[in-house]
Write a structure and sequence with these properties.
Helix content is about 65%, strand content about 5%. By secondary structure, it is mainly α. A hairpin with a 2-residue loop joins β1 and β2. The protein is globular, with a radius of gyration of 22 Å.
Length: about 240
């Protein structure tokens, strides 16, 4: 009799897929993205409708706290007047990624989950990183001009151009993969915890869900912070010389 332990088959990274017009659509990622986006927009509209200077609601205080923190970081990094649009961009990214990550605490009882955290799909994180980087390039070229903005690629000498170019290409990749890797690892842990016996499953699952929420908060903060730091290069040339 073979006493070797049976192999445990854990499949992660699966998606509920539709094949339409020759394209593969990860329906669970799309659904999670739409839900997170709808929640952010809904919260914003609710705060706007009930905004009050005398008796602010809890949601208003939360939005004001997040926006105030982002404004301070932008002002310290590049100055609000240089790129005022970075504040709503970074705030929206933080709230969207935070809510999207916290969707993982909602069990659906289906495998794969109907609404997994969308950032566990690298396609979404690539899209978010592409949005940030392209917007940064457009803003930088408008503020400094094409030649002045990309002058850093030949700094300190033109022979450094290949290395600087690789670093420039790696920037959106690292921004996307950092978020994806941390959220995807949470999905793997949930799959492993699901192998526990039913009578003790609740304890590690609750502990991990709480830890996963903390990781989701940290990753949303890091993505928003890196967005602000990347936009620091859009300062006009004369302002960057001070």
């Amino acid at each position: 009799m073979d006493s070797r332990p049976a192999a445990i088959d854990i499949e992660v990274g699966q998606h509920i897929q539709w094949h339409v017009f020759g394209l593969t659509w990860n329906v669970d990622t799309i659904l999670g993205t739409l839900i997170a986006g709808a929640i952010v927009i809904g919260l914003g509209l609710m705060v706007r409708r009930k905004v009050s200077a005398r008796k602010p609601s809890g949601s208003q205080l939360f939005f004001e706290t997040v926006t105030g923190a982002v404004e301070k970081q932008v002002d310290d990094t590049m100055g609000i007047r240089t790129a005022p649009y970075v504040v709503p961009l970074a705030t929206a990214l933080f709230l969207f990624i935070l809510i999207a990550n916290w969707l993982a605490i909602i069990p659906t009882g289906h495998h794969p989950e109907y609404v997994p955290p969308p950032a566990s799909d690298v396609n979404l994180t690539y899209a978010l990183a592409l949005l940030v980087i392209v917007w940064m390039y457009v803003a930088g070229i408008r503020n400094r001009g094409f030649k002045a903005y990309f002058h850093h690629l030949t700094t300190p000498h033109w022979v450094m151009f290949p290395i600087n170019l690789v670093e420039e290409i790696a920037r959106p990749l690292t921004l996307a993969l950092r978020l994806f890797g941390n959220i995807f690892s949470g999905v793997i842990m949930v799959s492993l915890i699901a192998l526990f016996p039913a009578y003790i499953l609740w304890a590690p699952e609750i502990i991990w869900k709480l830890f996963d929420m903390f990781i989701g908060l940290i990753q949303a903060f890091i993505f928003a912070l890196l967005t602000i730091l990347y936009f620091s290069s859009v300062k006009p040339a004369e302002e960057g010389a001070h």
